[in-house]
């Protein structure tokens, strides 16, 4: 397959490209600079249209572009960038797909667990109603734009991605390694999670499985709270994790991002993904913690 990827330089995009190459496929990456080789395509989402002829040779499009939510605090200016970087990229890709004579077979478009908002202990499936908040509004608008594509559309609702080096845990791991691991707030909020390897594998699975359509929770089958996740990582590093970061302090120093990202509780179900035939490499928190620390 030839797979066109936006956001290819990010954490998930880089792993996805690696896995596609290992499987004998050809990733074609969209870059916001001058293209340097035949596997790169320069684009300016929101400013210039993509030539629809590009899609003639593309089998699948993966839309993972967008400014990182991990950059904190969120200023009003940055929150506007979080919105425009996702909506503009999606509109540009959908327009090119819809205007192509021979369209790609599938668009796997990014979304996020944020669409559910803060839901306590409720088990969240793809049929659950959307929640409230900035991220819920953003994810909902992002999905709406993707669904305008005249091809099979899969919405990949991404969660906290557990990686060996970077990603959402990047700021937390140094504290744990130093023996200063801490849970955030009460620590009983549910953090939906998935290993980086399984995240990319799931996207490829959704591309290949022609029966998959609509929203899919990309989350591991074993739920975990913030405290359980920090404890599991501390255990692998043989470091204590008894400290707590009060919710008020997180709000003071991080602002709205603390409430939307760190203190928010989302207990997500992976049942729809597993029912489609996907098998996790790291289905348990212990396995994923070993993967991260290893």
Explain this structure.
- With 294 residues, the protein is an alpha/beta fold.
- It has helices at 11-22, 76-98, 134-146, 173-177, 196-208, 226-237, 247-254, 256-262, 271-275, 285-293, and strands at residues 2-6, 26-31, 40-42, 60-63, 106-112, 123-124, 152-158, 160-162, 182-184, 193-195, 214-218, 243-245, 267-268.
- The strands form four sheets. Strands 3-2-1-4-5-7-11 form a seven-stranded parallel beta sheet, with helices on both faces. Strands 6-13 form a two-stranded parallel sheet.
- Helix 1 (11-22) packs across helix 5 and helix 7 (247-254) packs across helix 8 (256-262).
- The two termini are 31 Å apart.
List the helices and strands and how they pair.
Layout: E1 2-6, H1 11-22, E2 26-31, E3 40-42, E4 60-63, H2 76-98, E5 106-112, E6 123-124, H3 134-146, E7 152-158, E8 160-162, H4 173-177, E9 182-184, E10 193-195, H5 196-208, E11 214-218, H6 226-237, E12 243-245, H7 247-254, H8 256-262, E13 267-268, H9 271-275, H10 285-293
Parallel strand pairs: 1-2, 1-4, 2-3, 4-5, 5-7, 6-13, 7-11, 8-10, 9-12
For the structure shown, list the relevant keywords.
10 helices, 294 residues, Rossmann fold, 13 strands, 18% strand, 7-stranded parallel beta sheet, alpha/beta, two-stranded parallel ribbon
What would CATH call the homologous superfamily? NAD(P)-binding Rossmann-like Domain
> Could you list the spans in which at least 5 consecutive residues all have pLDDT below 50?
none
How many discrete domains? Answer: 1
Please tell me how large the radius of gyration is: 19 Å
